[in-house]
Write a structure and sequence with these properties.
It contains 9 helices and 10 strands. The protein is α/β, with parallel strands linked by helices. The protein has an 8-stranded mixed beta barrel, surrounded by 4 helices. Strand 6, helix 6 and strand 7 form a beta-alpha-beta unit. The relative contact order is 0.15.
């Protein structure tokens, strides 16, 4: 953080109807050398262990909002999905930061999606519900990430007023070969649609997997088959 070695990477989230991606997940990398980077798995556990993860979250949120705000008018259709760590979910300082940053920006707030993992939400469900409600009062949207791995998923889903449901990659990677995964994802899509939520399949890494999730009614897909995260994807537009 002090040496300004963090950078943002952007991974496209593509609609299964075939349009060009306009949604991007914001990911963080740490520069190791000019063209070499550390990935979150290399530094996030240490940041969590030493209590620095909230500082990294704050940097990502501020930088993502500033980048989105600086995009030219021709890119007003672009939206960013920003991950929040479990420690930041329900944290009043994070909520104040988001509120302050948005106050100084003129962006359409629905273009900003905050992503919360299922496990983080269920650690303290009442706190997560309150946090999600306050984020949505600001005009932003909520995505529930890694969904499907918790045993209480369906019973709590109706309490978490999320806009987007991201299906955990463990159900997607080999869905073309697994009837069980197909049945689960189809049920999840039907429930999400009935509750007015958009679904996203993560870890779509082949055409056969893409075709399968599309046939099951998933709204958006994300993964290496669609596009890899790109460092400073929007830097040229902002600098220009």
């Amino acid at each position: 953080l002090e040496q300004k070695r963090f950078v943002l990477a952007f991974q496209p989230i593509k609609p299964t109807t075939g349009e060009t991606p306009s949604r991007y997940e914001v990911l963080v990398r740490m520069r190791k050398a000019e063209t070499d980077f550390y990935y979150p798995g290399d530094f996030i556990p240490t940041a969590e262990q030493f209590g620095i993860i909230r500082d990294i979250d704050a940097w990502v949120v501020k930088t993502a909002i500033a980048t989105l705000d600086a995009l030219p008018p021709a890119m007003n259709h672009i939206s960013f999905t920003v991950n929040l760590s479990g420690l930041s979910v329900g944290d009043n300082d994070m909520l104040d930061l988001i509120r302050t940053e948005l106050t100084h920006r003129s962006i359409e707030r629905s273009r900003l999606v905050f992503e919360v993992t299922e496990s983080a939400a269920f650690q303290d469900i009442s706190r997560a519900i309150d946090f999600i409600d306050k984020i949505k009062e600001l005009g932003c949207r909520i995505a529930l990430d890694d969904f499907g791995v918790g045993f209480s998923s369906f019973s709590y889903l109706k309490q978490l007023d999320a806009d987007i449901l991201k299906i955990d990659g463990s159900f997607i990677r080999e869905i073309d070969k697994s009837k069980d995964d197909q049945l689960f994802v189809k049920a999840l899509v039907d429930v999400a649609r009935g509750m007015g939520m958009i679904t996203v399949a993560e870890f779509v890494e082949s055409q056969t997997v893409y075709e399968m999730v599309r046939s099951l009614g998933v709204d958006y897909v994300q993964g290496f088959y669609i596009g890899k995260p790109q460092i400073n994807r929007f830097t040229d537009e902002v600098d220009g």
